[in-house]
Every structure is written in C-alpha cells, then in structure tokens.
C-alpha cells in the first residue's frame, strides 16, 4: 500500500534543506576534540546535504527542555532526513548516528509525555510517521518495535469517545491514519524471514485490546485490525516462504472477530469488515488444506462483495473449512460457543445457527474434543436460555457419536473439587436420550478398567459422576436410597440434580418404578427445595413414576401428592409452574373408583388457582391450566363449566362457578386474595374482577364493604392492589365473625327452648 505523504515541514521548504529556527531554539553544543567521531554528525555522507537538520536532531536530543514547536520540528526533521537518505541512497552511518543520540527512546518519551485524555497537537501523528520511515532505515528499530508500538497504542487508544473526537478534533483522523500506515509499513518492511513474526506481534497486541472493557478501545482495535487486514489482502508480493508459514494468532483473531460479528454492539460492522478482509487474506495465501483444486472450483466460489459475505454464513463455513487449519477452526467453534454468553438475542441466534451448520461437518469442526468440552463448560456457567442449552446438548450428542473415546477421556479429566460446571455437563449427558450407545460402552469400559479403579486419579466431581452412572446401570434399592441421601448432604445442588437425573433414567422400566415407590416421601420433600432446577427434576421423577406404576398405583399416589403440588402453581419459575400443573392434571385423571371421592375433595382446592393461571402471559402455562381445569370439571361432574373452559372465557367460568358453589364463595375469595399482588398484570386483573364479581354473592356485607370493593374497580390496579387485598382481608374476617355469632345465637336459642 502506498504511504500517505506527510504534511510539508518547515525544513523541507528551505532551499538548502535546513530547518527553520524554532521559537525556543536549543543552543548547539560545541563538539570537543576528545569526543568520539560517531557522536558528531559531520562525518555522515548525508551531512553535506542536510547539515542543519542533522545538527538540530543532535541538539534536540541533548537539550533538557523542548517546547511544542521544538517537538514538532524534531519529528519533522526525522521524517525529512530519512526520506532524503532513502531517495539519495546516502544511508551510510545514519543508523549509528540515530543510535548514538537515542533517537528511538526520544520518540517514545515524546509519546509518553502526551496527555492521555487530550489531543491538542500533531505530535502523535508525526511520531508515528517518523516510526514509519525509520522502519526502512536498517536496523534502527531492532529490538524496540514492541515498546514503540505499546507507546503509540497507549497514547491514542485511550482518548475520549470516537464520536466526540471525530467531530471536534482535527488531529484525530489523521493520527489514526498515520497509525494504520505505520502498522502496515512495519510488517511490509520487515526482513523476509521475520515478516510472519512481526505480523504475529502486532496482531497479538491488537487482540489483547479487543478484550478491553472500554468500548472505545475495542472499536479502535477492531478498526486497526480491519485496515491492516485490508492492506494484507491487497498485498501481492510476499517472500517466497511466506505462504508455507503458519500464523498461530489467526485462528484466535478470527474467533474473537466472529464474537463481535454475532453481537449487537457498535463494533459489529467494523468486526464484520475485519473478519471479511482477514478471511480474504487467508484465502489469498492459497492454503487449500482439505479440498482438491477441482472441488474448490466447483463448490467454493466465494461471495464477491462484503455485503454478500456477511449475509451468507453457509459460504463462510464452506470457505473456512477449505482454508483454515484444524486448530484455527477450533478457535472459530469456541468463539461461536462463547457468543452464546452475549446478552443480545441476535447474537445467540447467529451463534446457534453457525453451530448448527458447522455440526453438519463434524470431521472439520470437531477435531479438538477437549477444547470444545472446556468451551461448553464455560458457556454453561454463564447461559441459562433453554435454546442455548439445547444447542449445547446437540453438540455433545454429535461429539459422542463422532469421538466417544475422546469425549469420555475429556469428561473424566480431573477437575476442581465440587466443580458445578463439570457436573452440569455430566447432567446434560445423562439427560439426553439420543446419545449413541458407543459413548456409554466407552464410559463403561473406562469405569471398569483396572487402571481407572484408583480413586486418587479423579476429583470428587468425577467420582460422583461415575457413582451415579454405576447406580443407574445396576440400580438397587439401597444404593439409590444412599445416593439420594448423600447427594442432599453435598455442598452444591448440582450433585442432587445429577442424582435426580440418574434416578429418572433408572425409573424408565415399570418394574423399577414400582420397586422404588418407597422414595416417594423423599422426592415430595424436594418439591420445596430452594433451587428451581431441583424442584423441576423432582416433578419429572414423579411424572415418570406415575407413568410406570400403573393406574392403581398412580391413583394411590395421586391422593397423597395432589395437595403438595398446589404451592408450586405460583412458583417463580415458569417451567416449574407448567410442569406442576401438568402433573396435577395427570394425577386427577389417574384416580380410580375407590379414590375418586377423596380426589374430588382435594381437586376442588385447585379450581381457583387454575382459573387464574389460565390468564397467564406464558401461553404454555395458560394452555396446561385450561386442560387441568377441564379434567377437574370432568371428575367433579361440572358439565356446565366445560364449554366456557374450551372457549377460554375466564370470567364466564368464574360466574358459573359462583352460581354453582355459592357456599364456597368465601373459600374462593381466600384463594384469590394472594393473586391481587401477582406480578403478572393479566392474572392480577382477573383476580380483581373475580373479587368484584363475588361481592354480589355475599349478602351479609354492609354497604360500606360493598362500596369499598366497587370503587376499586375504577382505580389503578398496580397502585391499589395492596389496599384492595387489605379490604378483602377485612371483609373475610367480618364474614368469619358473623358466622361465629350466628352459631352462638343458634346454640343459645336451642338452650333456651329446651329450658322452657
């Protein structure tokens, strides 16, 4: 790439090439006879042409004070002298002269003296232009390139926000342009054997800045990578051995850029551009590793434009399969897994789509199983979305099918004691039904092999996972009971979660489900656990038991379980609410003749909660609530409720419910009372309207109570929900007091009549 010409200096404007006098000149020092010749510039061939410029450089390096004009003239003279030397070929001794006056250290010092939060002069720009031309003068920068780059980055990257600097500061854009030219020139002017090494160093420094918490620093780093990648992709003349050398940083860099490409931050577009040109650079290196030339010509016709590239993930994956090494493709996979931790919805979707396409070619993308398993570990620590967990489950299943031995070895690798993430991965494996039998055969062989019997080889986490597998493989009553009891004593709930998963697998047969019914009290107790995952898995274990114990056994279980499920209807977790209501419906339908009369009495207590949950914003919870309420209406013989339930009219259901059970109005009010403070607006509004409707069926209320309820109809629900609940509470206390007074009066009247 052609270097951008610098602004003309005052030195260049003079006819004889000498710089003009500074406003604060530095007095030159006389060179004594005892001083070595190399400390003076007069012996240089270039001295006869640019005497004043070289004298100024020497005097500036010795002067203890430098003004802003002196700094600018110093840097301009460096540029002018170097360019003149390159044009005339008078480079002899110039490198030694620069080293004697510590020129590179002086440039670094000037950069470090610049204020970090302000850009008030062109010193930064001139310094980077000076470094650019110095990279062409022998070995002046030898051993000092990295420190100079760090000084340049530190002086520019932590400036205030991009938008404000671009609009208000005339030096900002030219300074960044000068940095881009400097980075390109330092790569292209490196000795041929060190081109790859220099490029590796620059990309490493920029990669570290990509992970900065400062978004402005991220943006500037990604832009520099994009501009450098564009220069690399357009460069046609490389050393002969350049195409055969590997650049280790490329895979990591592509992976990080892919994360930004999936995100919704302000670096998205710049990252997409950098990713595109970096891929073009790799493709132009012609590293066709996996496919022959004929396949490339037939199938791998790359998109021509940047827009076509960004909108075609399939083309990206095919091209990356063709050109990247296995380690580089692994970095891409790890980046896609890491992108699932991003907060943006589109980032999750794009990452899942990329993984879905990549898993169609597991031989290319899933070669490094241990690294991918570690990536899954880290992702499970930071993501809770069901769709992301499902994608990771599929990825584990593909790994189990492709490389069962490597996957087992990776999962049996010693981990930290009580590693929650490792337990979560084992939990995912035990939970899946589509895991190939090769994985389980490999695991069984490793667990029972003589060399694996030594418990000191494994951490407590792996030992516990192996114990769960052994118990699941040959379950006995004692072992399963001990496993469930011991898991509740473990310091983390993931142990209990894994035990419940193993118990679910052991209950798949009807015989085992009937044999393990003695665990029912322990499982019911777990429904009150503080961890939502434990509550959900306990519900699933109960569901499997009900499915496999038969109609008679399920009927006996139903009578005992029904009451325990009602508190879970109001659980904070949507999945727990849905599953508990579904299990309630399953138990109601399982009742047989001799348990129906007891089932009716307990099922009535679920009518009001089910009615209110029909109006939830979660469609799955609302649907299962309607189905459960329909099952309750059927077992109670309430035929008139079926039609409004099917038509999804909760107020019609409430009206018919009050008409049919007028003696239970107080009970219904007590059940609906907590829902007046429900966080869901739809449920809270339905509870409020039911309360207003129920007042017509309470004949014993006085006018003040009726008025207080009626006025709540026109008030703001979110502001008045607590006051309305308090009024209903007072109303219910008044009803109980009236009932006790009537009962007392009846007793007294009966006693008086008998005495008479």
From TrEMBL:
Residues 248-436 form the Maestro-like HEAT-repeats domain. Residues 1-33 are annotated as: Disordered. One of its GO terms (cellular component) is cytoplasm. HEAT repeats lie at residues 519-557. Keywords: Repeat. The keyword Repeat applies. It holds the Pfam family HEAT_Maestro_2. Residues 483-691 form the Maestro/Maestro-like HEAT-repeats domain. PROSITE patterns: HEAT_REPEAT (PS50077). Transmembrane segments: none annotated. Residues 70-187 form the MROH2B-like HEAT-repeats domain. PANTHER family: MAESTRO HEAT-LIKE REPEAT FAMILY MEMBER 3, MAESTRO-RELATED HEAT DOMAIN-CONTAINING. This is Protein MROH8.
